[in-house]
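Sorry to interrupt, but I need a hand with the structure work. Could you add the entry underneath, on a fresh line?
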Amino acid sequence: MGIVYGILTGNLDKVTEAAVSSSKEAVLLCISIAGITAMWSGIMKIGENAGMVSALAGRMKPVLRFLFPDLDPDSMAAHYISLNFMSNIFGLGAAATPAGLMAMEELAGIQEQRKKQGKTVFPDTASNEMCTFLIINISSLQLIPVNIIAYRTQYGSVAPAAVVGPGIFATLVSTGVAVMFCRWMEWKNRKLFIKNHHKISKKFDKIMTK
């Protein structure tokens, strides 16, 4: 639409100029973001190899028990979830992605184990842990929005870190709403499951009586 408008108004040269300058700007922005992401990802990797990440993950066990009551806090899924949460807290969305994917794979494996154990598992349906993890991951509490600070620095902001306070408040609210929603849906699903289980039990009892 922009190109068509430029042609109709005789400003095609300005459209071309904007396309070239925007392309250059996009490449420079990607390079700056890649550098910052690489630095923080490296710091996270050093912390993981030094045992700091595992120590912080251990501190997150009460949080994980609250958010994922049916998940073993010492499992690999819990470890990757903790790593994902910590990466998001520091604003490292790119670094959080691999941990998030591995966490989902581990949660899928747990679903398969539950199925083999004869527990009620709905096929092709995400588990409560998967849904909770995804929603909390999207809400993403952030203490240091590294990417946003990098964007503001790239575009010449005089106070690139001024977004830290509003960012903490906004993500704290979004994460709080996400947690309340997850717990409400979990309670609702459990109540619905118990109700349907009672109905099925009554029908089975009637059939056996006949």
Q: What stands out?
A: The chain has one domain: 33-209. Residues 33-209 form one domain. The radius of gyration is 24 Å.
